[in-house]
Amino acid sequence: GAGVSQSPSNKVTEKGKDVELRCDPISGHTALYWYRQRLGQGLEFLIYFQGNSAPDKSGLPSDRFSAERTGESVSTLTIQRTQQEDSAVYLCASSPVMVGEQFFGPGTRLTVL
Amino acid sequence: RKEVEQDPGPFNVPEGATVAFNCTYSNSASQSFFWYRQDCRKEPKLLMSVYSSGNEDGRFTAQLNRASQYISLLIRDSKLSDSATYLCVVTPHTGTASKLTFGTGTRLQVTL
Which of A24, A78, A89, B3 supports an S-S bond with A107, CB 3.0-4.6 Å? Predict the structure, then answer.
């Protein structure tokens, strides 16, 4: 079946612009996660949605970052007034409610000039 | 101290060698443990879960030492295709979807 998809695959933007990154999780997966991975670094947790519960936003690095999820489907990560240090690969993952494994999308590579 | 610590490597080993990676975690409440594999410029994928009694999947063996708070991954008879970064992952929850904490990974390069 279809895996997690993300769009765009690459995004180049100018400093100060806003960007929106999209994630389509695997159908039926109630949990959805966003991570950031800077070049040569590990995965950094950003935010986690689980069903209708309030999202865990503890990893968002600043108030320029926000994310929304429509029901148990698509999620959008928005970065306002982008900075050069926002350049990274943004990875989305989803998982079924009772299983620990997370299934990752291919990521969006964001470059802020 | 990082929640999950790994030796970044790289570990350069010849084909056929046995190689082992360790990972330490700081949260004693951690309940579930995993090894993920990440190929260059690709997304992470689950390699194997780590069970308290240890578990084996073909050439791969994972072990957990709760007392010392570390996890290990052993790869026997290394193949060129094993070249990747191996990520140690822990979570305080068991059996439910929850936030995973990733180590920064250990890079393995298998050579001819």
Answer: A89
